[in-house]
């Protein structure tokens, strides 16, 4: 299938929708309700790209259900991509098998770069502006499942080989474009999400824990060093949707999009949107659309909870 090149609109903007944790499980009314909502958000927002940040499906019918969960994206004719969550292939099939099904679906622009060595489906999507120059790049990273280091346990970390791949991709992009920024997506947050919540002003809701790795593999530091990464957005912690800035990089959560997984009765499902501008590389706009018809454009500001103990 021919891949579509991503381009800024005539007005210089590009809109990304992040869907996360749809948890399509039993093909029942709960799941059908999730799909109906996603259809509405797509119709209301008309994004230029949709990034699905994992846990799209759950359980033993994952291969059967993935097409049903992704149906609204295919119907909308929008380019879309995907990164794995910890649950997508937890009970059945391999990452490769599920990803093979995604690759056959209309509109899918993700791919598996074997150069990343670890995980499956690590990829980068350049968005071109005037004269075909790359101005923004969407990165999709597989944040894994459980930590293979038994002495540590907990959730997996993005490996040093994946980080080296990320850095190499950026070096390659630097050869063709002197000025571009990166917005990265993955299912599980980097450990620094805890620092942004503790020490910086944050915007939005934190009603969940931090399901991030217990050890720090240096992914955030690499993002700081590369000088291009401006945002890293996650899923996984269903009842968190806040974001904040740490040393110039915005770290934040999407909005849980599906009804199949855990959540809270009074916590609306939704989607997070990002508006990138080809002439604004230092920052971006983000907001949420909710299943109750409301938008979250100016989320509640939360003052830092602690002052750094600098000794
Ligand atoms: Fe989840």
UniProtKB/TrEMBL annotation:
SUPFAM superfamilies the UniProt entry points to: Metallo-dependent phosphatases
Signal peptide stretch: none
InterPro entries in alphabetical order: Calcineurin-like_PHP, Metallo-depent_PP-like
A single cellular component GO annotation: cytoplasm
Single Gene Ontology MF annotation: hydrolase activity, acting on ester bonds
Chain ranges of the Calcineurin-like phosphoesterase domain: 14-239
PANTHER family: PHOSPHATASE DCR2-RELATED-RELATED
Protein name listed in UniProt: Metallophosphoesterase family protein
Taxonomic source organism: Candidatus Pullilachnospira stercoravium
């Amino acid at each position: 299938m021919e891949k579509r090149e991503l381009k800024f609109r005539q007005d210089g903007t590009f809109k990304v929708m992040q869907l996360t944790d749809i948890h399509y499980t039993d093909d029942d009314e709960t799941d059908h309700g999730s799909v109906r909502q996603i259809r509405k958000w797509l119709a209301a927002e008309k994004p230029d790209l949709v990034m699905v940040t994992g846990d799209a499906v759950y359980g033993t019918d994952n291969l059967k259900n993935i097409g049903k969960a992704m149906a609204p994206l295919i119907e909308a004719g929008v380019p879309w991509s995907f990164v794995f969550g910890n649950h997508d292939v937890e009970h059945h099939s391999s990452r490769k098998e599920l990803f093979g099904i995604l690759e056959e679906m209309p509109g899918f622009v993700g791919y598996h770069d074997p150069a990343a060595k670890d995980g499956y489906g690590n990829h980068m999507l350049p968005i071109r502006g005037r004269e075909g120059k790359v101005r923004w790049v969407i990165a999709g990273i597989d944040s894994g499942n459980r930590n293979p280091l038994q002495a540590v346990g907990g959730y997996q970390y993005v490996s040093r080989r994946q980080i080296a791949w990320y850095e190499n991709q950026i070096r390659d992009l630097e050869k063709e474009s002197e000025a571009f920024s990166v917005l990265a997506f993955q299912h599980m947050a980097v450990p620094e999400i805890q620092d942004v919540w503790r020490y910086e002003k944050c915007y939005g809701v934190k009603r969940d824990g931090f399901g991030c790795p217990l050890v720090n593999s240096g992914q955030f530091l690499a993002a700081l060093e590369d000088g291009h990464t401006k945002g890293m957005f996650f899923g996984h912690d269903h009842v968190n949707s806040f974001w904040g800035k740490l040393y110039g990089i915005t770290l934040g959560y999407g909005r849980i999009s599906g009804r199949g997984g855990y959540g809270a009765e009074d916590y609306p499902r939704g989607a997070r949107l990002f508006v990138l501008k080809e002439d604004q590389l230092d920052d971006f706009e983000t907001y949420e659309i909710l299943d109750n018809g409301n938008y979250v454009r100016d989320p509640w500001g939360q003052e830092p909870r602690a002052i750094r103990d600098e000794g």
